[in-house]
Amino acid sequence: MVKVNGTELDIAGKTLTEYLATTNYDMKRIAVERNGDIVPKAQYGETVLQDGDSLEVVSFVGGG
Amino acid sequence: MMLPTKEEWIKALKERHGKELQQAFSSATVAICGLGGLGSNIAIHLARAGIGKLILCDFDRVDITNLHRQQYKASQIGMYKTDALADNLREINPYIELETHTEHIAEENAVTLLQGVDIICEAFDDAECKAMLTEIVLTEMRDKYLVAASGMAGLHDANSIKTRKVTSKFYL
Prior knowledge:
The complex is a heterodimer. Chain A is mainly beta. Chain A has a single domain (2-59), classed as Ubiquitin-like (UB roll) (Roll). Chain A is built from one helix and five strands; from the N terminus they run ββαβββ. Chain A has one helix spanning 16-21; strands at 2-4, 7-9, 30-34, 37-39, 54-59. A five-stranded mixed β-sheet of chain A has the order 2-1-5-3-4, with no helix packed on it. The radius of gyration of chain A is 11 Å and the shape is globular. By secondary structure, chain B is α/β, with parallel strands linked by helices. Chain B has a single domain (14-151, 162-171), classed as NAD(P)-binding Rossmann-like Domain (Rossmann fold, 3-Layer(aba) Sandwich). Chain B is 37% helix and 16% strand. Chain B has six helices and seven strands. Chain B has a seven-stranded mixed β-sheet with strand order 3-2-1-4-5-7-6, with helices on both faces. In chain B, strand 4, helix 6 and strand 5 (145-147) form a beta-alpha-beta unit. In chain B, helix 1 crosses helix 2 and helix 3 runs parallel beside helix 4. The chains are: A mainly beta, B alpha/beta. At the A-B interface, strand 3 and strand 5 of A face helix 6 of B.
């Protein structure tokens, strides 16, 4: 299981790109943290989610 | 009215913040990316607190519609925000060191512009720019702290504002 923003999901073995494709996130507006480190966008395709991983997807909303 | 000397200024800050904290403030360099409702207010508070050096980044000019929330004056409409804010900050704290960059911050220049800073405040308006800066700072400038904001537009319940520490160097 992989914890995504606090929810356990059965997505171990998928790449980050594959998981994100199943969501409504806008790729240009997110930052993804995996086990304490931000994953560069260029590495989403090669990042394979492992059992026990913890992901935090920060989706930015405009306004400053 | 005579302005206080730098020694008097530092002494007053030390009395308020304690010697150690004030030394940390005085020796810190903070970059503020975006000088709108968030960034201009952040800058004013940091200047008052006695942060040693601020790096102010914004490409835009002061507009009449900014004045209800941003730290500019009617007489500054049309000025670059970097120049106008630098003037206002020096009036508040004559001893602050300032560096201004009147340009867009993008992937190409972010690392160069932000090289010498300790803490980066992300105060852009645009969500894609926020995500871009977050990724660059946290992957290519890993020694720095990032304080970012999301969803701070409009008028809403102040009690819905939340702050949290996302990673060891990333505050949102």
